Amino acid sequence: MFRPQIQVGREGWFYLFLVAVVLGVALIKGVNLLLILAGLLLGPVVLSWLSVRSNLRGLRLTRKLPSHVCAGDTLSVGVQLSNSRPRLGCWEVVVEEQIRRLGNGRPSQPPLTPSVFFPYIRAGQRAKATYRGRLLERGSYQFGPLRVSTRFPFGLLARTMLVENPQTCVVLPRLGRLTRAWQARRREACAGADRRGGSPGPEGDFYGVRQWQHGDRMRLIHWRGSARLDRLVVRQFERPRNRDLALLLDLWQPQPAEDQHRQNVELAVSFAATVLTDLSRKGAGNVWLVLEQEEPRCLGGPLSANLLQNLLEQLANVEAQSRDCLAALLACALPRITAGVEIVLVSTRAVDPSDAWRRASASLDPLAREQVGRIRCVDTSSEELWKFFAAE
Amino acid sequence: MYLERLLQINMATLAALGALLLGMGARNENMPLLVVAAAVLSMWLTDVAGWFRLNRWVANGVVLVAAAVTLRAMIPLESQVQAFAVGWFLICLQIVLLFQQKDERIYWMLVMLSLLEVVVATSFSQGVWFAATLAFYMLFGFFAMTLLLLYRQWEWYVPREGGRRTTGGRRWPWTSPPPPPAVEAAAAVPAKHRWPLVGQQPAFVGSPGGNIRAAVGRELLGRHGRMGLFTFALTSVLFLTLPRFGHLGWRGPTVRPQRLVGFSDRVTLGELGEIIESRSEVMRVQFSDYRTGKPYPMHGEIYLRGAVLTYYQHGQWQVGHPSFGYGLGEWRRTTNLPRQGLVRQKIKIRAMDRNELFYVAPWIPLHYNPDILVDEGRQRLLRPNELCAQPMDYELGTTALSQGRQLPLLPVDSSDALGSALQMPPAAGPYALPRLVALGDRWIKQSGLPPEDRLGRARYLERRFATSGRFKYSLVGQPRDLSLDPIEDFLTLHREGHCEYFATALVLLLRSQGIPARLVIGYKCDEFNQLGGYYQVRQWHAHAWAEAYLRRSQLPADLLHGKGYWPWQRGGWLQLDASTTTGAPHQISGWLTPLEHGLDWLDSIWANYVVEMNRQRQYDAIYEPLLRAARALIQVCSDAAWWRGRWTAMVSALRTSGAAGAAAWGMLIVGLLAGMVVLGLAGRWLWRMPPRGWLRWSGGRDATLRRRETQVQFYRRLEAILAQHGLVRLGAQTQREFVLAAGARLPATDGRQPAALGEAIVEAFYRVRFGCQPLDRSQVQAVEHALAALSTIPRGTVAPASRP
């Protein structure tokens, strides 16, 4: 959609005023040389009007935008302008982007307007320019419409066209760094889960034999192999480790919120995103992410790149809530999470899940109670967070 | 740097051209020289080397001082000359700006200052060179403004070390967006915050796409050339067609009138040393037949009278005896003009420091002119002193031109005092001229002519100067015996001198023989411009000659003119020129002559039809011919007889056999084809124009755009509805893909699948957006119903995205 319009800048108004004065004096006083000068001054005005109309004809504009970027990371957007006219070149074109954050309930902010400049595009050729910058808030951003303007040749008049080519880019939560304490705690949690998972035994797939050692169970001895090797060997099985994780995100903030509260929310989201990314990097099992978006939502499954992307996009768009949603989160999460899964509650406040569960839920399911009891809490408002997480 | 250097050179040239134009008008060569020197120095010292840059406060102080000095200088001056003071002030401002560190504000002010200089320059009377310089100025001005525009943007977007360029001045605030901070600068993390991004602002930096050298290449020059031609055409049309309101064209103030070096109303022999000749123009004289108005063909030289001197004493000529008194008479309007032989002399005299007007005598007033005064005592025509500083046009009649030559005979005027024309210094005493009288007696005796043959004697004395071989024309000052009268010294001792010596000697020799004679000063010109058809009189054409009185019976019949108009019964004055060599040194010879005459003609055209174009001249030169042509065209087109004649001629030509008939057929076919092409083009234009014109007039085009825009708004509404469910279109998705994917995750509403609803909306969007087809009412209603249905889907019912 093109909405061209021609505007007169301040320089143009000043120039027009000068032309009017010169022309008026020339006609009133009968100064012929001044009349010639007025004609020469009027020429640029007419030429500007003609040029700005023709200068933007035959231009094609394309934008190359990444589908996502992390908050605070450098975003580089390429803009390509093609001049499809066969003979006429094109000078002095400014392409201005408009970047708006999408989302409900947000105070309307003026759009960001990065711009690029094309001094000259030869006939039939194209030119590329790039603007780069950083978007500091996670969420979905709409890029566009593009405002293409020119003031060639004299800068007196400007013609602007609006090219409505909206594209969306999701700004994912900023990733931090998990500390060794978090890794150790995670290992402990996995070990605990294994212990809770029942008696050790050949529950996994067979993958080889090894020499018998003192303490090995008799039933693990691989008799055929021992006979062939003439020594005792025992069967070895892949021992499945329980790396499943459920992340519950409690993004509570008071109303009205202060900066500190908003920072706690961002820390919580960033911590959750960092944990998920870390799990994906190390190869996790199943992952659940439970968060509140108007209503509690539970997303999960075997952690893959697509799921990670989906979860990060959910985290990018999640909003803080001023009401207490912890009980609802638990109610949504616990029925869906299998036993033995480590549950981590990331909250922006100091909470007791058991207490919240007890107050809000009438369920007396012992399994659920046991799960609630095993929930580990990470409070982003406390200094304890820095033991596990470093925001960068 | 390349662009900036180019801009600096262009600005320096523009400043110099502006000052040159101003200097041309003010006739002051110091102005352009000063600015050229300042431009060159500032380029070197300020722009390239950076050794000297005027501090802003110092520059402001200098400007204030210059303003105060200008104001003080303007107060005592006349209002017309105040423009000169304003011009100097502008020059001063320009020089100050040239030595400041340049930024886009300074560049813009330099452009405006030079433009104001040109505005001031146009208030002065300017020649054709002004037009040529103005054309160059315009082209440089165009290029400067374009370079400035590119420079602004380029400097704004080009990446530099340490972020945006902010040194050297401010961003010109009129059109620029607020400067974004650099990305690197925004990356600093405040230590006191827990969240590292808090307190920072999102920042973006754009880079230019392309090479600036390619932008200012030959194509840009060619485009500016075309723009220059367009502007010339536009200016010409405007200038010729815009009506003038005044009867008189503006001639502008002349700050320094030209000094008339060769002419004076008082001749003092021996006063001058070497005469320096000036080729500057004094006036232009054009002759035309009074009855027909056609140019009068002239051959040879013309004598333009300025004043008549009759009283001589010891080397000094005066108008009459010192006790003689005359006043200024009024312009007499002649009702009965000579029936034949009347020639109009149209004279344009430049601004001079003297007020004499020159003419071919005898003059006849053709029409009333209040700007001409008549000095009967000296037989002069004068202009008022207040008009001396401006060029002046005046017209007179004369009968002294016959067969392309000026007749050397004038009628005696009633104010002529023949007695004073016989005045001689006393025969004894210090002012006596015994040698002159003796020489005259000897020459007359040698001639053998009787005393009654005044004509013969006068002619004989005139010829003696040329034929004796003892007298030589010279502009070099000669040593004179101060004990003698200068003219006696010239006649007897040092026989070299300029025209005043020859004329004085002849007058006194005639008087010594009893023939009344007088000295006439004026101009003798033989420089005829063939292109313009006028005599071009320069300073070096100033001349003095003698006139001898002849009685009626002595007047040669072949020299009489204006019979029945002039009172020849009183006798006449015979024009005698004793100078042995006149005019020869002044000739412009060689290949330069046509060039010189061409330039003079251009200057004449420029002065007549540009600088001094007034309402009457505009009507005569432009409106009237156009009207005449239009009337003739209408008359021809509406004349049935003319068309019938053409038709008959064509038919007869077609019936002719042979080559003539074939040619007629060929012309007919070509004419028919051309007519069909023209008709086709006109029809095509008419077919397209009315709807477009109607739409433009009625705002329909804008309305169409608005309607289309409104119609695409529904897709935005769809995206907004889906965004409420957290469904946002990814960059790689088309609108259809997005809607289908989102619809799959939404629950059905009222038994209708969201995917189908969304797809219907996308179909409509494609139709409007890419097909440019408007929606009819039923389609609009369908879209609205689909949007309403989608908006009823409760939030939080979105199914998770399908997992691979």
How many domain modules of chain B?
5
Form type of chain A: elongated
Write out the strand line-up for the largest beta sheet of chain A, numbering strands in chain order: 1-11-10-5-7
Number of helices of chain B: 21
- Unreliable residue runs of chain B: 163-191
Biggest β-sheet strands, sense, barrel of chain B: 6 strands, antiparallel
CATH architectural category of the largest domain in chain A: 3-Layer(aba) Sandwich
Structural class of chain B: alpha+beta
Mean pLDDT of chain B equals 81
The radius of gyration of chain A is: 33 Å
Write the CATH homologous superfamily of the largest domain in chain A. Answer: von Willebrand factor, type A domain
CATH class bucket of the largest domain in chain A: Alpha Beta
List the topology elements.
The complex is a heterodimer of chains A (392) and B (804).
Chain A: E1 5-8, H1 10-29, H2 32-55, E2 59-64, E3 68-70, E4 74-83, E5 90-96, E6 99-101, E7 115-121, E8 126-134, E9 139-143, E10 146-150, E11 157-163, E12 167-172, E13 177-178, H3 180-196, E14 206-211, H4 223-229, E15 233-237, E16 245-250, H5 259-282, E17 286-293, E18 295-302, H6 305-317, H7 326-333, E19 342-347, H8 353-360, H9 366-374, E20 376-379, H10 385-388, E21 389-390
Parallel strand pairs in A: 3-12, 16-17, 16-19, 19-20
Antiparallel strand pairs in A: 1-11, 2-4, 4-8, 5-7, 5-10, 6-9, 9-12, 10-11, 13-21, 14-15, 17-18
Helix pairs in contact in A: 1-2, 5-6, 7-8
Chain B: H1 2-26, H2 30-48, H3 56-74, H4 82-98, H5 104-122, H6 128-157, H7 183-186, E1 203-206, H8 212-215, H9 218-241, E2 267-268, E3 281-289, E4 302-309, E5 311-313, E6 316-318, E7 328-329, E8 343-349, E9 356-357, E10 363-364, E11 373-375, E12 380-382, E13 392-398, E14 401-402, E15 405-406, E16 409-411, H10 434-447, H11 454-467, E17 472-473, H12 486-492, E18 496-497, H13 499-512, E19 517-525, E20 528-529, E21 534-538, E22 542-550, E23 572-576, H14 592-611, H15 615-637, H16 640-655, H17 659-698, H18 700-724, H19 735-745, H20 754-769, H21 777-791
Parallel strand pairs in B: 17-18
Antiparallel strand pairs in B: 2-6, 3-8, 3-21, 4-19, 5-6, 7-11, 8-13, 9-12, 10-13, 11-12, 14-15, 16-23, 19-22, 20-21, 22-23
Helix pairs in contact in B: 1-2, 1-4, 1-5, 1-6, 2-4, 3-4, 4-5, 5-6, 6-9, 10-11, 10-12, 10-13, 11-13, 16-17, 18-20, 18-21, 19-20, 20-21
